[in-house]
Amino acid sequence: MTDDKRHINWDLIVRHLMDVATDEEREEVERWLAENEGNGEYYRKAKRYFETYYTGKETRVVDCKGAWNEFVVYADKSRETHIWRAIVKYAAILLFPLCVGFGYWFLENDESQTTFVSEDISIEPGTTKAVLVFNSGQQVKLTDSIAFGQAIEKFKPSGQVDEAVEYNKIIVPRGGEYNLVLADGTSVMINSDSKLNVPDRFEGKERRVRLEGEALFHVARDVEHPFIVETVGGDVTVLGTVFNVNAYSDEDYVQTTLVEGSVAFQGKGMADAKTISPGEQITYDLQTNGINVERVNTDIFTAWTEGKWIIEGMRLDEIMKQLARWYDITVFYQNPEAKELVFTGDLEKYNKCNVILDIISLTTNVEFELKERVIIVKMK
């Protein structure tokens, strides 16, 4: 069975079920249904649960800005009941939004099964921000109005000897992200809680940067000067390509996902570099020095640069690490077994944290309590 069912908006399915779809929307759903039996089964489940739980009388109060306008929950066989009930609730939100403030009212017959985070506390998503630390120690805050290149020219310490290449550091704090273009034309999108050391100019036979955290690189091609991303676990070497590197200090691995071109990874415990092809991912275990190469959907690992998290069968503790970095929160588990729960779905990165937690609570057996900037995770 293909993954096509995962790429149709639930809104279209609901409009089709309610017989309010336009001719164009109806044709799109019919084409999707004809593609394979899996899509048909997905639709039949939707119809059954829609008829069971939706009455057309529910009232929804939502925050327009944070509306779940593109949230699509995938069919996870291990948790079908929770997921499909969540989908039905989402359908009502899409079709009958009343934009009059915060809070979410759900189906009366499911109210006792769901606990949501406090409506009185709102945690906003991260923003574009970073700090440029020159080799001299001088610091400059980077925002939309002050680009990296402008800061280098304007704030570069005077009297610096140009003979020696100086490395400067870009620090992206928790609750931030930053996009920059290096001297060679390479663009880098840096994720929250990450650090990138870059030279003020590239000289010699290679273009080398150092990364701690996560970043997506679009490397300008230069066959004479390979681009090298140095991490705590090893080096990623490329000539010109698009790839994502995940090398956070609190993880036990370094992971490189290749979108375009070709990269070679050599871990500190590896005798030879391993080359991967587009659509492949190499994971290097920092504890065992072992490597694993597999084909993946690269969209899952680059979606964070486009305002989404695409999650497929991810453990809750891994999801909460991402949320902690992006929303600058601390996570505490009242029940450690909650870490092992698995979630599948699309999440909108620029929604308030409260909305994200409500979605996860609807589709897993956990609830969240929010105290200031601490999220307490509990089993239901």
From TrEMBL:
GO molecular function, one term: sigma factor antagonist activity
Transmembrane segments: 87-107
Taxonomic superkingdom: Bacteria
Annotated ranges, domain Protein FecR C-terminal: 309-377
Domain FecR protein residue range list: 171-263
InterPro entries reported in the protein's UniProt record: FecR, FecR_C, Ferrdict_sens_TM
Keywords, comma-separated and alphabetical: Membrane, Transmembrane, Transmembrane helix
Listed PANTHER family: PERIPLASMIC SIGNAL SENSOR AND SIGMA FACTOR ACTIVATOR FECR-RELATED, PROTEIN FECR
This protein's name: DUF4974 domain-containing protein
Species annotation: Butyricimonas virosa
